[in-house]
Specification:
Order of helices and strands: HEEHHEEEEEEEHHEEEH
Structural class: alpha/beta
Number of strands: 12
Radius of gyration: 20 Å
Strand content: 15-25%
Shape: globular
Largest sheet: 8 strands, mixed
Low-confidence stretches: 6-26
Length: 313
């Protein structure tokens, strides 16, 4: 079983039209968020207030609810990608709208802003503030799911012996911050088109474009551009991410770019770069244990491609 944060988590809680085909989703993959309630907040010594499943919803009255307030020092330092402290400019933010170059709209729902502070539309997390996230409210990311068919030495598709369906592979990276395997995605910069983010993040994390020679980089960029001209939008909405708080949360657009014959990106040597410690082609199945909601995105991709997922699928 893939536990959301660590092996003790279950015990802890026991008490885009431009891509061509689009399947937007207003609901969070997986239902009630669980990874957003990890006992210990990532990269810190801060422990969340325990929030039982039946107290997650803001609609459930909980007058004693007193979440731990935490914003990481790296965010408080005021980098260009982060909002200022909300007390300083509380009246200047334009919630649920495009605020200058910053998109403060949620992909999932119109969120409430009690006392001028945005509130996580999917419920309590046991911690307030921004944690590791730069923006108050939604923090938008883009996740490119690059796939190919697993093939034998003769080039024939390999099928799973139980489901009798062909096995799909995707490019996965090992995150430096948590050590978890994930889709090679990243944050959408202010004013940036999601289509640009998808290509940039894949090139930086899975092909090490920040360090490879220019000639080599331009050659692979051409292959990526061709593959990324058309993709299938797997998911758009809230992400059950361990960095989420009551006032800042992750949302994403996950898009599948499939190399059907394995002769474009499927043949390019992978090289980990930027925020990735490792990278490889991973077989897709229900045994995968990935960061945040990434397993759900991969499952949706497998179902769409009519590929193997589980023995009974």
């Amino acid at each position: 079983m893939c536990f959301p944060c660590n092996s003790g988590f279950s015990r802890f809680f026991s008490s885009l039209s431009f891509f061509g085909q689009v399947r937007p989703s207003g609901k969070m993959a997986g239902g009630v968020h669980t990874k957003a309630r990890c006992p210990q907040y990532p990269n810190s010594e801060v422990n969340r207030l325990a929030v039982p499943d039946d107290r997650v919803s803001w609609g459930k009255e909980w007058t004693e609810y007193a979440p731990v307030d935490y914003t990481a020092p790296s965010v408080k330092a005021g980098p260009v990608w982060a909002d200022p402290d909300i007390e300083e400019v509380i009246e200047k933010f334009k919630w649920n709208s495009i605020d200058g170059k910053v998109n403060r709209k949620s992909y999932s729902a119109t969120y409430q802003v009690p006392d001028g502070i945005p509130r996580n539309p999917f419920g309590r997390t046991g911690i307030s503030g921004r944690g590791l996230l730069g923006k108050w409210g939604p923090n938008h990311a883009a996740d490119p799911i690059v796939t190919r068919w697993k093939r034998d030495k003769k080039g024939n598709k390999i099928t799973d012996p139980t489901s009798k369906k062909p096995i799909l592979q995707f490019v996965s990276i090992k995150r430096k911050d948590s050590g978890a395997w994930a889709i090679p995605g990243g944050m959408v910069d202010a004013g940036e088109k999601v289509s640009i983010t998808l290509k940039r993040e894949f090139g930086e994390e899975a092909l090490n474009h920040l360090e490879v020679p220019e000639v080599e980089r331009k050659a692979t960029e051409k292959e990526i551009a061709a593959l990324f001209k058309r993709g299938y939008e797997v998911y758009r909405g809230y992400v059950d991410d361990p960095r989420n708080t009551d006032n800042a949360w992750m949302e994403t657009i996950a898009v599948n770019f499939h190399d059907e014959d394995g002769k474009s990106v499927g043949k390019i040597p992978l090289a980990a770069g930027d925020d990735a410690a490792d990278v490889h082609w991973s077989d897709i199945s229900s045994d995968l244990c990935l960061y945040a909601s990434h397993s759900e995105f991969i499952e949706k991709t497998a179902l769409y491609r009519k590929a193997h997922w589980a023995a009974a699928s």
